[in-house]
Design a protein that fits this description.
Shape: globular
Number of strands: 25
Mean pLDDT: 94
Number of helices: 1
Order of helices and strands: EEEEEEEEEEEEHEEEEEEEEEEEEE
């Protein structure tokens, strides 16, 4: 169920409220909890117009409940006095976040444009581990003819306190300084700058990265090659980790990933007014690249964050067809060659994946959507006393179909069919997804 309340169009500003609930009784056989979950969320947002400035903000709260159902069957008993209880595999994440921003919209070259953002989040789990993050950025830019000079300054502090008294709490700050010059002509566009970052916790590390990209209109509006180089320190927060891998253990080991360099090139363009394409290649070297490893602690049903130095060579291709108010088609394929330094292979990430999306509009009444995705095999791993045991997670296809009938602009009905092939493929080792699901409902706007 979802409910939204929004203000009408106004010269003074706008505001809105959103509420969502999504839950399932399960659908995964032969595991305690059946893979049941629930998610509740609320958002409050608003903005006010102040002449050439906009002041805005948003506040979000989510509460996600799930179960660690990926336990090793031989390590548990489901009957008798020592039977595994539902409460023993329960996990609840409470997340709160807020953001306030101020942005200017000055025309021409006379005044300095700016944007300031202040962000806060807090996440706790049922065991008592808590993370608090406060981040602020300030962007300044000014035009000088065909050139724009910009400077971005940022401070990002994250502190995590562990429920496990044997683990040391972590307090980490990333300070960013990113000056850049952008120049453009009829065919050329060049961004040239540098990224200076300092990472502060028990000791300080200073990093320097180039930050540049150039593009050229080889055939204006039809063929645009581009190339660039960058890098950076990327925050691995408990917040982001719990969303990407919700079965992570209660006290995850957190480090930031440092992209030593990222060199990329590509070409984008249009075959016609309806068909566009994008081809790209990338080479990247990352220190402290995060991966998920199955814990060896009984009953082997949680994931641990582990790190390695990983080189990546990637290529992707995208093709899209768009006919206004009628048909949208998209095809994408991506291949990544990972070369980890310590592990035999990168964990839980496929080398190849592809997908197809389609949206069809019939006389503005019937809307049909289709999605197909293919994910190649991946490798999971379990930490053992004598080393790491590797397991193979099979490749899978996933097909979804959606139908919507819009009776009026205010009233519609829909039907959604997910996982049409009814494949209980593994998202992580022993964490199978729900099979075929069909659900429907209606939407109504006052």
């Amino acid at each position: 169920g979802e409910l939204y309340f929004n203000s009408l169009r106004s010269r003074n500003g706008a505001f809105g409220l959103g509420l969502q609930h999504h839950s399932s009784a399960g659908g995964i056989k032969n595991v305690l909890s059946n893979g049941a979950f629930s998610s509740n969320a609320a958002q409050l947002w608003g903005k006010t117009f102040l002449g050439k400035h906009v002041l805005g903000g948003q506040f979000d709260y989510t509460r996600d409940k799930q179960y660690y159902y990926g336990y090793r069957p031989s390590m548990v008993t489901l009957e008798g006095a020592n039977a595994l209880q539902l409460g023993q595999i329960e996990q609840v994440y409470d997340r709160f976040s807020g953001e306030i921003n101020l942005q200017s919209f000055f025309d021409g070259t006379k005044k300095l444009n700016h944007r300031e953002d202040l962000f806060y989040h807090r996440i706790t789990n049922i065991q008592g581990t808590a993370e608090q993050r406060i981040a602020g950025t300030a962007d300044f830019s000014k035009k000088f003819g065909n050139e724009t000079v910009s400077i971005k300054i940022g401070v990002d502090n994250t502190a995590i306190s562990y429920a496990d008294a044997s683990k040391t709490d972590w307090n980490n700050t990333i300070v960013t300084f990113n000056p850049k010059v952008t120049t453009s002509s009829e065919k050329f566009s060049v961004n040239a700058g540098m990224l200076l970052q300092t990472q502060i916790d028990t000791n300080s590390r200073f990093y320097f990265f180039p930050d540049a990209e150039a593009s050229y209109q080889l055939v204006p509006g039809i063929l645009v090659p581009y190339a660039g180089i960058s890098g950076g320190v990327n925050r691995n927060s408990f917040q982001a980790l719990s969303l990407a891998a919700p079965f992570v253990n209660a006290n995850p080991n957190l480090r930031n990933t440092v992209d030593k360099y990222k060199i990329y090139a590509g070409v984008r363009g249009n075959f016609s007014s309806h068909i566009s394409f994008h081809l790209a290649v990338e080479q990247r070297l990352s220190d402290q690249f995060m991966m998920m490893l199955t814990d060896s602690a009984a009953p082997e049903n949680t994931l641990s964050a582990v790190y390695d130095r990983v080189a990546q060579t990637a290529a992707k291709a995208e093709l899209a067809y768009h006919k206004i108010k009628k048909l949208d088609l998209g095809v994408s394929v991506a291949y990544v060659l990972y070369k980890p330094s310590q592990f035999g292979q990168v964990l839980n990430l496929p080398a190849f994946q592809g997908g197809l999306t389609a949206k069809y509009n019939l006389v503005d009444k019937f809307y049909i959507t289709a999605e197909w995705s293919y994910v190649d095999k991946r490798f999971g791993a379990i930490q053992r006393a004598n080393g790491v045991e590797s397991v193979v997670l099979g490749a899978y296809n996933d097909i979804n179909l959606g139908f919507e009938y819009r009776y009026t602009k205010r009233l519609s009905a829909f039907l959604q069919c997910n996982n049409l092939l009814n494949r209980n493929y593994e998202r992580f080792y022993r964490y199978n997804v729900q099979g075929f699901a069909i659900f429907g409902g209606f939407t109504f706007a006052l």
